[in-house]
Amino acid sequence: MTHTKATPAKSPAKKEMILSAARDLKAMMYTPAEIEQIRRKLIADKGEHGKTSAEYIATVLAEAGMRVVLSARSDTQGRYEEEFHDLLHFSTLEDAEMCLVRLDELLRKFGTEGEHAAQARVLEVARLGRRRAEMIARNHKVDAAKRGEKEEVARWFAVWLEQPDAFFDWLEVRKQSPEFQQRFPQRDADDIASDVAGAEIE
Question: What are the boundaries of each domain within the chain?
């Protein structure tokens, strides 16, 4: 006698949780980076009840008519997706600035090479970074100082997305402003190195 392993059905409530999280992201397409963000958000918001697989999330999104691109090959030929994903692992203001430096370099490089799909993906990754920072800034389970940093980072991403050519001049002025220096007092190199070494990947 052959026994077939049953696949547990997922509840309509879990599907709606996934779709709600996807709508919050407002992404043009859902690659593994966005799907992972949805998976983390469900766990953060719902705990054990929110746990599900990336494969199931992708299936729910596709069934709902959302654009799911599990391989970046069709849009950027798979050359840069891993680099994009790693870029958004920022834990400090210094990490966020370097992330934006790299995104800016990629945007200009792809523009020069005429790779319009890759340029569009750079902007989408930046929008994902902004949304990720905004979600952390609104999460009251996170330390207040860290929420303040993520609120600032979200502002940086928003300005870069609106005015990439003027962003770094703006950022230098912003970092010299009394408000910024009061909110984020200058730290010495040892403090920053300690933060980076001990920071959790977000």
Answer: 12-63, 87-180
